[in-house]
């Protein structure tokens, strides 16, 4: 069966009957393979045996037992349908390779009963070696689906092996998330308090207070924060990182050529600095032709356009050097290519190069939408975003850039596809660079607070994700999608979710005191979220014995860390 959908060739119908439960499967939460896109000669065998819908075949090269998919889309007699159930999460995995051609995209697509195509995940496949394809679907209604492999080359000849579809209830999925969070966001810290002769100080009391979490859940702000004291108080009491929606953009700071105005951005930055709020820069340039200052598209001379563009980069980068945590240097340069069309194919890469020279310590993002959201259009897929960052870093002089991936996260008002989102983060994370969700929002809809919590927890439970910024605020802010509080600053249901996660993802101020004994017991060990802490050691009977120090708990220190405190007495 041949079909073209959104520029992809659907190479085969491949469906599994619903009572198979055997063979090898890939755990979607296992990162032993997910953060490594290396092509292997023989897929590693998983120790897991529980898989819902599954076929397993030999992976020897040229074996007749491989599923061989030719350009006609046929795959022997395997043209069955699967029944999916609303409320469950279905995780897909398969090892794929090309028998002809090389370096082609291969993905999985689910076709629902009403003919809608849901893209479930993709990889860049190679010839004669195997790459792991992961993805999945979260159906918003129960019903049957057909599963296809797809490729951007209709002549692609694909082989697949160890194809699996696993079913999770939402409770099972969350349990997996929670287990990962304990592993990647926390470490156990054991304290040993001794005298100089190494004998234990019995009765010592250790008090711990977090001063700064490693993982930040932040919120964007706009110029209205300068007009409302209530908005400022509401914001400063919650968030420690932000970005400005429009106030740093070129079309705001230079509405007329040669007349720059940074008043709003400077005032907002001042408010942030006074309240200990970090700021992420958004954006130096924007590759969308419709998002330029009105006078820029009127420039016909490429040399003149290059001059004003370089002036913009120099102006904004030098003004805020050392004051920001990161920059979207060329926003959405996978979806759009205004500067590439006007100034040459390497325009984006050269602009990152100049930005790096102006502020070498700042993190520089490729920032894109519809990358983790699983929209119908497939312009900025995880594979393409990854390749764009690789292209930028390969440009002469860019190898030492502190690169990062910004996944905007503008989700539709419906059940998010968490299985796809996890596979997308896996692909982006294979670069080894930090990922931030930078503009998370969702139009108002029933269950918005449930969906937003699922999205944020999915990101928080992924090891490559280092922070999140939501596009939200109280009613006075004008954020009409994620409205977190009404005009009296009373929380909405979604606002309650955000406050709950802020509290959960920051170490509680009520960390139980540790009372030291001379025996090895659990009371001397505490599980701490990664971050910075103040630690005080005192003794109820020794009034002069008190010492305080700073402690940073990081994932690099492993799952357990021993802190030794020596008392001079």
From TrEMBL:
- What's in the keyword line of the UniProt record? Carbohydrate metabolism, Glycosidase, Hydrolase, Polysaccharide degradation, Signal, Xylan degradation
Q: Does this entry carry the keyword Ligase?
A: no
Which InterPro entries does the record cross-reference, listed alphabetically?
GH10, GH10_dom
| GO molecular function (one) | hydrolase activity, hydrolyzing O-glycosyl compounds
Q: Tell me the GO BP annotations in alphabetical order.
A: xylan catabolic process
Superkingdom is Eukaryota
Q: Where is the signal peptide?
A: 1-23
Q: Which residues form the GH10 domain?
A: 209-500
Pfam families, per the entry: Glyco_hydro_10
Q: What is this protein called?
A: Glycoside hydrolase superfamily
Query: What is the species listed in this Swiss-Prot or TrEMBL entry?
Result: Arabidopsis thaliana x Arabidopsis arenosa
């Amino acid at each position: 069966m041949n079909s073209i959908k959104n520029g992809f060739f659907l190479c085969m119908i491949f469906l599994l009957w619903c009572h198979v439960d055997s063979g090898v499967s890939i755990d979607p939460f296992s990162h032993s393979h997910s953060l490594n896109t290396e092509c292997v000669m023989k897929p590693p065998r998983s120790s897991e045996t529980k898989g819902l819908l599954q076929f397993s075949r030999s992976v020897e090269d040229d074996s007749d037992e491989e599923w061989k998919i030719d350009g006609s889309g046929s795959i022997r007699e395997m043209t069955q349908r699967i029944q999916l159930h609303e409320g469950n999460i279905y995780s897909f995995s398969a090892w794929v390779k090309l028998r002809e051609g090389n370096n082609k995209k291969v993905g999985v697509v689910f076709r629902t009963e009403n003919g809608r195509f849901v893209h479930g995940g993709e990889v860049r496949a190679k010839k004669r070696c195997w790459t792991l394809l992961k993805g999945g679907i979260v159906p918003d209604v129960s019903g049957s689906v057909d599963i296809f492999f797809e490729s951007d080359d209709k002549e692609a000849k694909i082989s697949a092996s160890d194809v699996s579809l696993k079913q999770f209830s939402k409770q099972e999925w969350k349990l997996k998330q929670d287990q990962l969070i304990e592993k990647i966001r926390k470490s156990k810290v054991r304290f040993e308090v001794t005298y100089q002769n190494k004998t234990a100080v019995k009765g010592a009391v250790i008090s711990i207070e977090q001063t700064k979490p490693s993982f930040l859940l932040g919120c964007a702000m706009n110029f209205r924060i300068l007009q409302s004291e209530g908005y400022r108080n509401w914001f400063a009491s919650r968030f420690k990182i932000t970005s400005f929606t429009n106030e740093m953009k070129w079309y705001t700071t230079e509405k007329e050529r040669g007349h720059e105005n940074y008043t709003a951005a400077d005032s907002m930055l001042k408010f942030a600095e006074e309240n200990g709020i970090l700021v992420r820069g958004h954006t130096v340039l924007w590759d969308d032709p419709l998002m330029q200052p009105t006078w820029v598209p009127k420039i016909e001379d490429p040399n003149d356009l290059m001059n004003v563009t370089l002036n913009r980069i120099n102006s904004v980068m030098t003004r805020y050097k050392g004051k920001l945590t990161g920059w979207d240097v060329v926003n959405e340069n996978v979806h759009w290519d205004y500067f590439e069309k006007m100034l040459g194919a390497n325009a984006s890469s050269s602009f990152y190069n100049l930005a790096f020279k102006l502020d070498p310590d700042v993190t520089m993002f490729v920032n894109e939408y519809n990358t983790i959201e699983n929209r119908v259009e497939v312009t900025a897929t995880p594979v393409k975003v990854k390749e764009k960052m690789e292209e930028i870093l390969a440009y002469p002089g860019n190898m030492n850039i502190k690169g990062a991936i910004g996944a905007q996260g503008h989700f539709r008002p419906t059940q998010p596809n968490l299985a796809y989102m996890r596979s997308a983060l896996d692909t982006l994370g294979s670069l080894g660079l930090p990922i931030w969700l930078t503009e998370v929002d969702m139009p108002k809809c029933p269950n918005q607070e449930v969906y937003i919590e699922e999205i944020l927890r999915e990101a928080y439970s992924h090891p490559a994700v280092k922070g999140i910024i939501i596009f939200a605020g109280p009613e006075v802010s004008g954020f009409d999608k994620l409205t977190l509080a009404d005009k009296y600053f009373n929380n909405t249901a979604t606002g309650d979710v955000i406050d709950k996660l802020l509290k959960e993802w920051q170490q509680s101020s009520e960390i139980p005191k540790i009372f030291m004994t001379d025996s090895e017991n659990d009371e001397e060990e505490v599980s701490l979220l990664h971050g910075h802490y103040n630690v005080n050691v005192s003794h109820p009977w020794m009034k002069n014995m008190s010492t305080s120090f700073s402690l940073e708990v990081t994932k690099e220190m492993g799952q357990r860390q021993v802190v030794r405190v020596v008392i001079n007495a």
